Amino acid sequence: MKFGLFFLNFMNSKRSSDQVIEEMLDTAHYVDQLKFDTLAVYENHFSNNGVIGAPLTVAGFLLGMTKNAKVASLNHVITTHHPVRVAEEACLLDQMSEGRFVFGFSDCEKSADMRFFNRPTDSQFQLFSECHKIINDAFTTGYCNPNNDFYSFPKISVNPNAYTEGGPAQFVNATSKEVVEWAAKLGLPLVFKWDDSNAQRKEYAGLYHEVAQAHGVDVSQVRHKLTLLVNQNVDGEAARAEARLYLEEFVRESYPNTEFEQKMAELLSENAIGTYEESTQAARVAIEYCGAADLLMSFESMEDKAQQRAVIDVVNANIVKYHS
C-alpha cells in the first residue's frame, strides 16, 4: 500500500484563504522529506469548502517546491474545462516534473457549477466522456481530432507531448454509478471519496469489478485510492468535536437534503477520527470495504499544528516499518 496526503483547503471564519494556502505549502514541504508517495489538491468553486479553483496551477507550484513526492490534481473537473487546454497543461506538468504529475479528474458534482460555466446539464455524462477522450488522445498520441456533439475541430498537435509514455498516470473520482461503470470499461483506477459512506464505496467497488469482468477488462493491476480525513487525539471525543466543527459548513452545503446529524455521525465514524486505536480501526474497515490499494489522508481538521505533525510522523513511521 502507498500513502499520501490530499488537501481540501477549507476556509472558515478563523482561517483565511492566505492561511489555508500557507498551511498547505508548509505541510507539503514537510511531508516531501518523509516517505509519503503523493500530494493531491482538491478543486472547488464559489464556496468556503475549498479555496483552490485551479488545481493544475497549484500542482505546478508544488512540483516546483518538492523533489520526491508525486503531485496530483485530486478531482480536476474536466466537464467544466476545455479538454485541449486541460491536456496541454497536464502534459506540460508531466514534462516539467519528469513524470511526477498524476492526473486525477472528476465529473462535475454540482449542477450550479455546470450552469455557471454554461455547460449542458441534460447531457453532462456524455460531455464528460467526450472531454476525457480528447484528453486521453492527446496524452497517448500527441494529437486530437474530435467530431462529436460538443467538440469538432481539425486534427491538432498538443504540445508539449507527454513525458510519460501514454501520458501521466490517471485516476477518476467515483462520483456516480455511471462514472464507475465507464471507468471499469476503460480499466481506470477510482478514487473513493472521503464523504461517501463505507456502504457506498463497497457498492462502487463491486460494480466496478462486475462491469470490468463483463467486458473482459483485466483490472488485477489497477490501484484504487481511498481518501480519508484523519484527526487523532488521546481524547477521542475531542478529536470528534474538532472534526465536527471543521465539517459543519461542508455538510450543510453539500448534503442539504440529508438529515444533518445522520450524515455528520457517518463522517465521524467512517473516517479516521478518534483515538489512535479508533482511527486506525476505522481506516482498516474503510479499506476493506472498497479494496483500495492506496490511501490519501487529510490532516487539515487538526488545528494544533504540533499535534498534526506528530500524527503525520506516526503515520510515516508506520510506512517505514510496514510498507517500505
Automatic annotation (TrEMBL):
<dbReference type="GO" id="GO:0005829">
    <property type="term" value="C:cytosol"/>
</dbReference>
<dbReference type="InterPro" id="IPR002103">
    <property type="entry name" value="Luciferase_bac/NFP"/>
</dbReference>
<keyword id="KW-0560">Oxidoreductase</keyword>
<feature type="domain" description="Luciferase-like">
    <location>
        <begin position="1"/>
        <end position="263"/>
    </location>
</feature>
<comment type="subunit">
    <text>Heterodimer of an alpha and a beta chain.</text>
</comment>
<keyword id="KW-0455">Luminescence</keyword>
<dbReference type="InterPro" id="IPR018235">
    <property type="entry name" value="Bacterial_luciferase_CS"/>
</dbReference>
<dbReference type="InterPro" id="IPR036661">
    <property type="entry name" value="Luciferase-like_sf"/>
</dbReference>
<dbReference type="GO" id="GO:0047646">
    <property type="term" value="F:alkanal monooxygenase (FMN-linked) activity"/>
</dbReference>
<dbReference type="InterPro" id="IPR050766">
    <property type="entry name" value="Bact_Lucif_Oxidored"/>
</dbReference>
<dbReference type="Pfam" id="PF00296">
    <property type="entry name" value="Bac_luciferase"/>
</dbReference>
<keyword id="KW-0503">Monooxygenase</keyword>
<keyword id="KW-0285">Flavoprotein</keyword>
<dbReference type="GO" id="GO:0008218">
    <property type="term" value="P:bioluminescence"/>
</dbReference>
<dbReference type="InterPro" id="IPR011251">
    <property type="entry name" value="Luciferase-like_dom"/>
</dbReference>
<comment type="similarity">
    <text>Belongs to the bacterial luciferase oxidoreductase family.</text>
</comment>
<comment type="function">
    <text>Light-emitting reaction in luminous bacteria.</text>
</comment>
<keyword id="KW-0599">Photoprotein</keyword>
<dbReference type="InterPro" id="IPR033924">
    <property type="entry name" value="Alkanal_monooxygenase"/>
</dbReference>
<keyword id="KW-0288">FMN</keyword>
<protein>
    <recommendedName>
        <fullName>Alkanal monooxygenase</fullName>
        <ecNumber>1.14.14.3</ecNumber>
    </recommendedName>
</protein>
